Each structure stands twice: as structure tokens, then as C-alpha cells.
Amino acid sequence: MRKFLGRQAALDYTAEPKIDGLSLSLRYEAGVLVQAATRGDGEVGENVTENARTIADIPQRLSGAPEVLEVRGEVYMSHAEFAALNHRQAMSGEKTFANPRNAAAGSLRQLDARITASRPLRFFAYAWGEVSVPLATTQIAAILRLKDMGFQTNPLTALCSDPDQLLASYRLIEAQRATLGYDIDGVVYKVNELALQARLGFRASTPRWAIAHKFPAELAWTELLGIDIQVGRTGALSPVARLKPVTVGGVVVSNATLHNEDYIAGRDARGQVIREGKDIRIGDWVQVYRAGDVIPKVADVDLSRRKTDAQPYVFPKECPECGSPAHREEGDSVRRCMGGLICPAQAVERLKHFVSRGAFDIEGLGARQVEMFFKDETLPVKTPADIFTLAERDAANALQKLKNRDGFGAVSAAKLFAAIEARRAIPLDRLIFSLGIRHIGETSSSLLARHYGNWERLIQAIDASRSFTGADWEELIAIDGIGATSARALVDALHPDSAERAEVNRLIAGLSVLPVAAAASDSPVVGKTVVFTGTLDRMTRAEAKARAEALGAKVAGSVSARTDLLVAGPGAGSKAKEAERLGVAVIDEDAWLRLIGG
């Protein structure tokens, strides 16, 4: 962060326990609680206002609060209260909960607020969103202000002046973890000065000014019963360990990722030895952990318990789903099925990705339903476009209505059709991500959407780039954060003659793709393509890029005919010469700051 800010002086930080609960946002107007919402997908959450009003730790009215205040925090349940709740559930013949987090989440989402009121929920406040007036100038002072308003804040939150103090705070909190009476899974470090937080800003979805330091994962030993190969949406063959069920961190684990064929053989992607070179064989006793307390992984092998007839695992050279060759490109750690659209596993996984949370996020159409519709002979869904004709095809089918099938009824079928209809209007970045193009993830999708603004401009650029030459291609690969590999994957997937493009055209015909709204519309650089080069004195180049993007500019990594402005500091070389050759306007850092009002 000091490098990003170009700062030599030390920074102050806060260290606070990372509560393992459910995120909740509370909105107060004139000191009165008016709305409570879960985090949901990061943009749209669930309205749980009436349920939140039943939690004793959440004040209904605040004294001395700004006119508008959004408080963020974590709903959780103490160990003792969780045990008592499970006892009551068992005594009344009702289902018990696996852990306090699940109990808290289920309790907060109850349709009947009276049930929530009967559950022992608690709340820690640790952050804020919209405020009409700043709470303070530092993180620690803002938390103290929330405490003064009546919120419960974590007493273990500490102010630290350097990384050594942060690590000491981490060790202190870790030592108290077992006796706190509630679940934490790590410590969060934040830059204390709020003005510096604002300068540091955000990446695509995470702040630059904060990071979570997780506690070591809990380990357990169990038997490896088998290795299955799953085929992903890009054809990647992923080995999955089938385990004798074992409890790890309060969760029963029966499957774990094995990454790729090198990992099974005891090597990393560069061919270096891992696990002291011990390979993994069916029948072995393996050590399992949950990475980030979420994803089960295999860490080690106990050779002393290996069976004498255990054989090295031979990774398949053919796709287990369609029989196509499975090739491994040079430099790639993954073997991939070459079957493409003929591979049913790839088709199903791409559909699952299409309806996933970061993409179309269609309620009622999850992985299980996707698999059902893919195999269905009466109402099949083989491509994303088929999803948006489901209601029409169901209406035309007089004999086998969806509402009459197992797993559906009149209400659930109607809800599914309504949820699909609601997703006909889709933001451009979600659409790009939903297509499941290799090398194009959520961050790349957001960059492309912000740069081109609408689907028509993006597809025109792809069409003009099919030869991987010309101004449109240069503009595409110049987008800061995209690069040639991602750009080539995009063009290969969606050029006019590809089978995938034909399917995408079918999909687009039934959608309304929402363009990206121009940010900071009064800024003089909105929509302009800006390149930075040379040394900047008043801010680092990374900060300059982040600030330009916040003002609605498009930041590119190289100069092209589509560049509007080059900001050149001392030491500018080839980019300045290229700008001069192309007639691109060149200004220095002072002129740039005057332009943006900085």
C-alpha cells in the first residue's frame, strides 16, 4: 500500500477479529432504523428489516447519528446459546443446526419474525456504507463513534503502527479464539486513515486498504476411496478425491479437490517437488483441510499406511464424458477435453455457470434443475437461449406441463418462469461473464463492459479484430487488465463464423442488454481513453489509474489510434513517441491534475 501511495512514512492500521456470521446492513434515517438487508450477491440482498428489529444488539433509534447512516456488521450466535437452541430443537423433534453460522443465517432469514425473535441472535458493528456526514477521520475513531451510538463493537479491535504489531495482534486473538464464546476465522487488517482508504480505492470487488488474515485450517486424516474426473465448462479435467466422510472444522467432508495431474503425482505446475514427492494413490490415508475454511483440499499422504498393492494413479488422456482426446497445452497445468460443443459435460457446466450468482443468477434454476432440464426430452435446455423459451414451450405443451412434474408445482413453476422473465434485462458485464469464455472472468468482464459501454460496440470490436490486427485489435489489447491472451480468447469464441457466436446471437435476440452508465458524468475525462507513462511525482501510476477510472475514464496500457490522452511524466519513452506519431494529445502530470480538478 505504501508503494501504491508512493509514501515512505509508516501507516497506522486496525486489526479486528473476523466474525464467522452473516453480513447485515442497517440503514438509519434521522436516527431511526428504516431498513435491514443481507449482503446477497453484493448488489442485491434480502430485506430482513422486521427480523432485524427483534435483535437486542441492534438499536431501533440512535442519538447523535448523521441524517443518513448505513451501519454494516455481522449477525452471529454464541456457542452457549447455539448449544441451547440445538437442545430445544432436538427436544421438540425439529431439525438441529450444523454450526452457529448456519443457525444465525437460517434464523435471520425466517419469513416469520416471531421465529427470529425466539432465536438468540447477536450483532457486532464494524463498518459503514452511505453516510450524510463522515463519522470520523480514522477507522478506529469511527468504530468508537458507532459504540457511542449504542452498537456492540468488538473489544479486541486494536490500533497498530506496523506489520509486526499486526502480527502480534493476530497471535493474541488466535490464542483467545477457543475462549471467546463465538466463532471467528481470522483477523482483518485495515488502513486506519480514511482519507488514505479513499485514495487506495477498490479492485474489481475488494478494497486495496483491507485484507483478511485467516487462521490455519483444521486438519483431519481419512481414507481416499477413489478419484473421479469432472469436466468443466472450458473442458478442464479436474480430479476430485472421494473420501471416507470425516468432520473438518465442524463440516462433514466427503469430497476434496486434487487440482490436477501434477498435484496427484507430487509436483507443482512448474515440475517442482511438493509433499516431499509423495504421490497420491487410491486407498491412501490422506490429510484433509478446508482452504479458507471453505474448500476441502488434500494436504498430505501417510506412506506408512499405504497398501502394498496400491498403484500410481494414471491420469486419463481421453474425456470420460465424450471420449474426445484430452490435451495439455504447453505451459498449462490442466488437461482439457477437445470435444467442445459436442461434450455434454461442458455443455451442462456452461449452463450452470450461465445461471450462477455472478452471471444471470436465476432464482429457482440451480445446478440440479439445469441437469434435469438438460436431460429432459419434453422441455430440454441445451443452450442458454433455451432457458428464455421455457415458458413459451411449456404453454404450448398440453400434456406434460412443468407444474405436474416431480419437484415442481403450479406455484414453483410460475415462480421459475417469472424469475427467468425478470432476467431478460441484464447488465453488460454480467452477460459477458455468463458466456463462460476462458480467461474472461468477472474482473475482465467488468473491464470490457466499462470500456465499450454496450454490447453493440463490443461485438463490433470483436468482428473487426478477427485477424488480430488493426486499430480495433490494438484498442482491445490495450485495455488495462485485459492483454493479448484474454483478448484472443474473446475473439476466438465470438468471431462471426464461430458456432458459439450463433448461439450467442440466439440468446441476445431475447434479451435487453443494459449499457454501462457513464460514471461521474460531469468529469471532463468521462469516456476518454487515457494512458499513463513515465514517472509521476504527485501520485503513483497505480493511484493515477485508479483515480482516472473512478472519474469515468478508460485506462489503457499502450498508445493506439483510439487513445485520447497521454499523461507523460519524466522518463516517458516509446509511448510518448507513438503518441506524437499518431497525433495523440500529450500532457504532463500538473496539467492532468488541473484537468480533473485535483
Walkthrough of the structure:
- The protein is of the alpha+beta class.
- It has five domains: 2-214, D-amino Acid Aminotransferase, Chain A, domain 1, CATH 3.30.470; 217-342, OB fold (Dihydrolipoamide Acetyltransferase, E2P); 343-423, 5' to 3' exonuclease, C-terminal subdomain (DNA polymerase, domain 1, Orthogonal Bundle), CATH 1.10.150; 427-514, DNA polymerase, domain 1; 529-596, BRCT domain (Rossmann fold, 3-Layer(aba) Sandwich).
- The strands form six sheets. Strands 11-10-9-12-13 form a five-stranded antiparallel beta sheet. Strands 6-1-7-8 form a four-stranded antiparallel beta sheet.
- Helix 18 crosses helix 19.
- The two termini are 21 Å apart.
- The mean pLDDT is 92.
CATH secondary-structure class of the largest domain: Alpha Beta
* The CATH H-level homologous superfamily of the largest domain: DNA ligase/mRNA capping enzyme
CATH topology of the largest domain: D-amino Acid Aminotransferase, Chain A, domain 1
Mean pLDDT: 92
Please state roughly what percent of the residues sit in beta strands, choosing from under 5%, 5-15%, 15-25%, 25-35%, 35-45% or over 45%: 15-25%
Biggest pleated sheet: 5 strands, antiparallel
Number of domains: 5
Helix percentage range: 25-40%
Distance between the termini: 21 Å
CATH architecture classification name of the largest domain: 2-Layer Sandwich
Shape: globular
Strand elements, count? 21
Helical run tally: 23
Q: Helix/strand-derived class?
A: alpha+beta
Placed side by side, the strands forming the largest sheet appear as 11-10-9-12-13
Radius of gyration: 27 Å
Show unreliable segments. Answer: none
